[in-house]
Amino acid sequence: MRWDDFRRSSNVEDERGSGGGMPGGVGGLGLGTIIILGLIGWALGIDPSVLINGAQIIQGGGGTVQQQSGPVQTSPQDQETMDFVSAVLGDTEDRWTEIFQASGRTYHPPKLVLFSGAIQGGCGLARSAMGPFYCPRDKQVYLDTSFFRDMQRKFGACSDDKACRFSEAYVIAHEVGHHVQDELGILPRVTQMQQAASSQSDVNALQVRVELQADCLAGVWANRAQRKHRFLDAGDVDQALQTASAIGDDRLQRETQGYVVPDAFTHGTSAQRKRWFMNGFNSGDVNACNTLKADSP
Q1: Span 188-207, mean pLDDT?
Q2: 3-state secondary structure of 96
């Protein structure tokens, strides 16, 4: 992936080292354990704090978030990642501005907050173990960039640092896709539908459609960015599909509990995530992403 031509966004807020980290773990849990539990919760739609607190109880630990004792020194690699995040966010702003203008709308880009360990945001306490997420209450994307390393090393979502770049861009574009849904009024409408749902499985089914649509919208961005910059290298799309496969509900459930419970899905199967990303990527058309009306997502 070649991203030098991408415009850098001014909407990135770097809160790393602001005092909300968890360098020693939580309640006696190692950081690796916290990350794994958080990724499982993020992918399955379970509040990661439930899994983490349960593990703390088993180990007899408390639930205190340890504070950092000073600013974090960023490495050249961290600085490059910061530049990369700013570049990808900047291009999503440009492409979605063009798409919205074509339909007579105005796109209001989100802020992207980089943090380390934990941070208090509009949706409550955000921990790095939760993975990247979008908060509709404050219109911000939250990202601890250590997630990129864990995505590669713990979940095998991509093969190496260079190959992982487009996978990382896909993750950012997916979260921006949730903001696009918010801008279009889709998220509030789905929230109302979930509140009126008669069962948790119905709530989860709606969430799957929301997440698959965000995958598709990430594909739309990639299509438009490729038209503009010709930025993709051979194999980049395959790496993104590998990422989508690695974080599919079915694969994660099978690896963590040995069996699959479709009613508990919240993000979609590996095959569904790959298919909807490619719908967006092949078409470049938001209309190809109507997962809410699809007979079968």
Answers
A1: 88
A2: helix
